[in-house]
What we know:
Elements: H1 2-42, E1 49-53, H2 57-63, E2 65-80, E3 83-99, E4 106-118, H3 119-122, H4 124-127, E5 132-133, E6 138-149, E7 152-161, E8 164-165, E9 170-179, E10 182-187, E11 193-196, E12 199-202, H5 205-212, E13 214-217, E14 226-232, E15 236-249
Antiparallel strand pairs: 1-2, 2-3, 3-4, 4-15, 5-6, 6-7, 7-8, 7-9, 9-10, 10-13, 11-12, 14-15
Amino acid sequence: MKRSVRILLIVLVILGGLFVGADRLAVGFAEDEAAEKLRTSEGLSETPDVSIKGFPFLTQVAGGTLDDVEIGIENYDATSGSDKIRIADLNARMQGVEFSGDYSSATADKATGTARISYDELLKEAQGEPPVELPLGATGKVVGLSDGGDGKIKVEVEVSKGGAKLPKPVHVLSSVKVEGDTIKVNADEIPKKFEVMGVSIPLPEGLVRDVTDFEEKVSGLPGGIKIDEVKPARDGVDISVKGTNVKLAG
């Protein structure tokens, strides 16, 4: 009797090991296929990372829904007006991923994630605009962004008059927020005047904000996810994204 029980236990262990091995092989194959399909559907230059969580995988497949899928895209070119804006280190968690019977399409019930936009990328739209005309023939233009600390962006403004630039750029601290699919940067305080070549130039607030304040529309993120929040960091703005009924493929 004891020998029979021992044999049964050995058989169960072997079968369990075979099942686990088959399950891991299947999930590895599925991750590779999903990554390639995502690369093709989103037009990515590099294959993204796809990690299917949960065990066992095969029972999830049988049920037609994956509990948890994590996706990592190193660089993604989203749309900003008529141009592109580079989204870096996009990592998204997809939950409740349902797929079609032939596995040609998949949709996540909800998605959350993080990414980053460098200051150079965030500035592209503003840099493409012509300098703003200020009083007494001066002009102003945003030429740089950096981390201002305490959740602020430091905006660097270049002021010129008659072809001569201020010896040092003017800096203002700005707040950043998201409205819809647009990131907005607005100065907290506006300088009242500039000194250019010994001439004091008065600065009406509305006119100065035409220089310091700008916005960047960001759309076309994978699967239709949207930017939810944005926070200044050392090398750019950290963003959080979210979405519902996110289409992964098909």
